[in-house]
Amino acid sequence: MLDRSSARGWLRAPELKRVLVSPYADAVILDRFRVTDRVAVVTGAGRGIGAAAALALAEAGADVLISARTEDQLAKVAREVEAAGRRAVVVPADLNDPDAAEGLAEAAARAFGRLDIVVNNVGGAMPRPFLSTKPRHLTHAFQFNVEIAHRLTAAAVPHLLGSPGRGGAVINISSVVGRVAGRGYLAYGTAKAAVAHYTRLAAADLAPRIRVNAIAVGSVQTSALDMVLTDDALRAQMERVTPLHRIADPQDVAATVVFLASPAACYITGKILEVDGGLEGPSLDLAIPDL
Length: 291
Hints:
Layout: H1 4-12, H2 14-20, E1 39-43, H3 48-59, E2 63-68, H4 71-83, E3 88-92, H5 98-112, E4 117-120, H6 135-160, E5 168-175, H7 186-206, E6 210-217, H8 226-229, H9 232-241, H10 250-261, E7 272-275
Parallel strand pairs: 1-2, 1-4, 2-3, 4-5, 5-6, 6-7
């Protein structure tokens, strides 16, 4: 049993402090939520969650490479990033193409000299009744949501390993429908459940130098929900079944992206953070009848 004075001496030993103390222990707490001079790749960054995440990372101090299909949308996000005092590189790409996604890691490292953060935001699948969901729909949903994320993450690993401090961070965007059941979401929900478990498995494979986490989002005010959210009755239904009684703003998700990318989350990996307003089921009932 150590006495108090011996314990003090033991804790002062420099080699033990390096093992036991976080590298961020001396930071003011709010500094731990910054990503100053880090470099991020954000997919699906032309609008919605991706655009909000890119801008939030810039406001927290990062330079960003942003990619999506529509160059005009990316250019607008890039101007907002630059207005926040950070650099932006725009890479228009069809991210249905796994090779295009894979090339983003090298493009970021070439442009900025490093890569520290990957945000795998691109994804999605159209809802369909069970008998209308064909094998090709499942295949495409898996490719678009899981394979694209894996191709970019794998290409980023050599660069993330070189990230200073505790290494790099990967943030995947999953969905509440990856953990709850509702009619019509077979392809989308299965793919997002795969993203969530991919996150756990990748975190185990890449620890301790690279952290991998995911955000399971609920309904978010993005263009994907425009047709629903402009219908007052449907919007009211979605708000009513959400315990916080509102639809998320993309910035709600972006704030969580910054947290998971930052030193504030340096002891978190392999976790799925639920940013869904408290949902325990899909917020949108597609009213698909019994067979």
